[in-house]
Specification:
alpha+beta; Rubrerythrin, domain 2; three-stranded antiparallel beta sheet; 1 helix; 3 strands
Length: 92
């Protein structure tokens, strides 16, 4: 259920309430009991998908993605380099 912010124009009281999206918004202030309550528009919370199939990296910013792509290109071997390094042997 979403959280909504309310403000009373009569007394200035502000509060938050958990309310169903289908429930009509409140009109009566719990403090002064006047019908001057209004619901405020807020930024809201970010939508986050949880569970298998959703990854935090799916929601990275464009600047992060560009930086990661540049780093990946930087770490690639040059195209003319065909030499392979042999794995190091462990000493016993």
């Amino acid at each position: 259920m979403p959280t909504y912010d309310y403000e009373c124009h009569g007394c200035g009281h502000e509060f938050e309430i958990f309310q169903s999206m289908t429930e009509p918004h409140k009109r009566k202030c719990p403090e002064c009991k006047k019908l001057k309550l209004r619901r405020l528009f807020g930024a809201g919370a970010a939508l986050v998908f949880k569970g298998t199939g959703f990854y935090e990296t799916d929601y990275r910013s464009d600047s992060y993605k560009k930086g990661a792509a540049a780093e990946k290109e930087k770490n690639k071997a040059p195209k003319g380099d065909t030499s392979k390094k042999s794995p190091k042997k462990k000493d016993k």
